[in-house]
Amino acid sequence: MAVSVVKGLDQLITTDLFAWVQLAKTQANLGRVINRIPLLALADPGWFAVHICCASGQTINFGDIERVFPLMSVIKTFSLLYLLEHLGAEAVFQWVGVEPSDAPFNSLEQLIADRGRPRNSMINSGAIILADKLPGKDASNRTQLFCQWLNQLAVCQLKLDEVMLASVRLTRSPANQAIANYLVEIGHLENSETALDTYEQMCCLSGTVEDLARLGKLLACENSSLSSQHRRIVNAVMLTCGLYEASAEFAVKIGLPMKSGIGGGLLAIVPGEGAIACYSPALDTVSNPVAGLAFVEALAQKLALSIFA
After folding, report:
1. In what order do the strands lie in the sheet with 205-207?
2. HSE-up (13 A, CA, CB side) for residue 165
3. DSSP summary character for residue 42
4. Quick check: 56 and 184 in contact, CB under 8 A?
5. Exposure check for the chain: N or C terminus, fewer CB within 10 A?
6. How far apart are alpha carbons 181 and 168 in whole angstroms?
7. DSSP state, 289?
8. Taking the domains of the chain in order of start, what are their residue ranges?
């Protein structure tokens, strides 16, 4: 007799969620909270939150769901979507590629080897170039317009965390500065300061796991306000590039488009079904959230969520 397999986000029940969260939290001690940005360094590595938005309208959440955190690199997913919608794919892919990188996300060496063309929009060089292309008269106006667009589309409540931004500016990444300077030198950016200021503000847009899951649902489900082609492009780039040099490993283990951030955010897209958002500030050596990945892996395997299943 054939054994039926329980599949899909809608099959998730709270008791299962509790068990998988506990399993994930035991993995947190394998990671470390980032210490380069003073305010991020204050996070408790044991914090964990998850919010799941299903296409059916069902929502499930658990843990430290009221905690607000900066999206950091998770926002790169949505700056790509924003520019695809406003400028089109032909324009966007003149500036960045869609190829995975096996180098760290802030590698200047990789950028130089590639003659100044960022491999993809999920690494810092690509995100800095795209930050420079956001519509608006200056960095603050660009970020404000971008944030308003996201909040309106996703019905979420992202806000610029000015205190976090001050902490980021206090310890601006030398690697990001070097990347921006090189891009100016070869003519791919006009002004490194404007590009970096926009990028840093964009990364300090902050919200809860519910806000992040609502954003993810834009990519998971058909939306009359967004191009289906652009959604497919973003999901594909997330799958192959969203977890940096670990992307291929987790494409095999989990099989979902995903994006991480050093603030502890993790977003997983289940196309046609919904979105899973996690917050867990302890990171692995690649800078992906340890507990968040452990949770999504358990969930994906138990509910057969992989797009390759």
Report:
1. 69-70, 205-207, 159-160
2. 18
3. G
4. no
5. N
6. 18
7. B
8. 9-69+206-302, 73-204
Q: What is the mean pLDDT of the chain?
A: 94
- The candidate with the shortest Cα–Cα distance to 96, out of 231, 234, 216, is 234
> Which residues pair with residue 267 across a beta bridge?
259, 277
Provide the CATH topology of domain 9-69+206-302.
Beta-lactamase (3.40.710)
Q: Which residues pair with 268 in a beta bridge?
A: 258, 276
In Å, the largest CA–CA distance within the chain is: 67
Using alpha carbons, select from 259, 255, 247 the residue that is nearest to residue 306: 255
The structure's pTM equals 0.96
Burial class (CB in 10 A: 0-12, 13-18, 19+), 42: exposed
Please tell me the predicted confidence (pLDDT) of residue 262: 97
Position 5 scores a pLDDT of: 53
State the residue for tokens 């099989």: 255
Rounded CA separation 259/288 (Å): 9
Q: 73-204 architecture in CATH?
A: 3-Layer(aba) Sandwich (3.40)
Contact by Cβ (8 Å): 192, 132: no
Q: Say which amino acid occupies 123.
A: I
> Which residue type sits at 204?
C
Say if CB 227 and CB 219 are below 8 A apart.
no
Query: Amino acid identity, residue 269?
Result: I
Please calculate the CA angle 133-135-139 and round it to the nearest 5 degrees. 80
Distance CA 244, CA 121 (A): 11
State in Å, rounded, how far the first CA of the chain is from the last one: 21
Interval 258-269: pLDDT, tens: 999 999 999 999
